[in-house]
Amino acid sequence: MSLQTEKKFEEIFRMHFRELHGYAYRFLEDTDVAEEVVQQVFLKLWERDWEKLIHTSVRAYLYRAVYNESLNLLKRNRLKKQYETYQSQHVAAEGYNDGSDTELKKQLHAALSHLPEKCRTVFEMSRFQELKNQEIANELNLSLKTVEGHMTKALRHLRIYLVDYLTVLVLTLMFGL
């Protein structure tokens, strides 16, 4: 990235960060989380060829990105809470875990075993060791784009491989079947 592009990016960051933080805060009602969301949007923008990526105004693009990132975070948190509530109620009612966690782990392990070794390693480092893509790239001596490609491939594979199991699990969580 050229020095001119870096300066332009920094200028955009400084110009829009505060207003985007306020916008994210309206959805998230947590100043730290709102800051993380805005930083994540700028990080994703930095990692891509952002000058070619944006076809509208920069401001409009950033607002839409913060909106989407905020809603995605809220959705993930809501699903996580629903699952935790279900788990706590189910374990309390049954007095034990019925093995759905164990079964999910078995299904996940089976799905991961069908992935190529590098792809599986990248996924496990990302999801189980909670490393960022850049950290994985550095540790495995891969490019960031290669790591992103492996993650995309792994997630697509898991989505396809686990669709039946996850559908049953979600229905069970939602309707207590």
Automatic annotation (TrEMBL):
Positions of the RNA polymerase sigma factor 70 region 4 type domain: 106-158
Q: Report TM segments.
A: none
Residues forming coiled coils:
none
Name the domain of life.
Answer: Bacteria
Where does the record place the RNA polymerase sigma-70 region domain? 13-78
Which keywords fit this entry according to its UniProt record?
Answer: Sigma factor, Transcription, Transcription regulation
Q: Matching InterPro entries, A to Z?
A: RNA_pol_sigma-70-like (IPR039425), RNA_pol_sigma-70_dom (IPR014284), RNA_pol_sigma70_bacteroid (IPR014327), RNA_pol_sigma70_r2 (IPR007627), RNA_pol_sigma70_r4_t2 (IPR013249), RNA_pol_sigma_r2 (IPR013325), RNA_pol_sigma_r3/r4-like (IPR013324), WH-like_DNA-bd_sf (IPR036388)
Task: Extract the SUPFAM superfamilies matched here.
Answer: Sigma2 domain of RNA polymerase sigma factors, Sigma3 and sigma4 domains of RNA polymerase sigma factors
Query: Family assignment?
Result: Belongs to the sigma-70 factor family. ECF subfamily.
What is the name of this protein? Answer: RNA polymerase sigma-70 factor
Biological source species: Sphingobacterium pedocola
